Amino acid sequence: MLVSERLVLRRFRPGDAEAFAAYRSDPEVARYQAWDTPLSLEQAAAAVARHAAADPDRVGWFPYAIALDGELIGDIGVNLHENRGQADIGFSLATPFQGRGYATEAVERVVRHLLLDRGLHRVSAECDPRNTASARLLDRVGFRREGLRRENTWLRGEWVDDLLFGLLAPDYRRGRAGDAELSR
């Protein structure tokens, strides 16, 4: 479990299935994501059970539930690479909670955990260039835009580009040291 100022990033629980189905079925949330919509309650319950059984220390994806006052409002996945020195992240947030800094807070907390607590060397992310809110979020957290893979992903009946982001531990530590200097 990871805790930030307003959020708890925790394992999924069976009671999360209804909220999970609701935001994963929202066309605005799913617009730039690879999952199919709508997501039935049965499908959500099965996904939540799989997510709850995942291990954050194992190679592969581990999804954190993003909770606000105990309520599931989104998720952030961490894909730990086989070398255990790198990870990819991806995130989604229910529409009513967007634009309030919750996603930035959750991503920042996970990145801090991966780079400082776990000692990973690099965290990567990618998004559709049309998803300007996610691109701005990654910029705010300190990711660098590293490239563009043109028409790389087949999504909702069309080939779309992938905007690539990366954040190295040394750069993150330097940025945090600069933040500390500014706050003195």
UniProtKB/TrEMBL annotation:
Transmembrane feature ranges: none
Pfam families reported for this sequence: Acetyltransf_3 (PF13302)
InterPro entries: Acyl_CoA_acyltransferase, GNAT_dom, N-acetyltransferase
N-acetyltransferase domain sequence ranges: 7-170
Database matches in PANTHER family: GNAT FAMILY, PUTATIVE (AFU_ORTHOLOGUE AFUA_3G00765)-RELATED-RELATED, N-ACETYLTRANSFERASE DOMAIN-CONTAINING PROTEIN
UniProt-recorded name of the protein: GNAT family protein
Organism in which the protein naturally occurs: Saccharothrix xinjiangensis
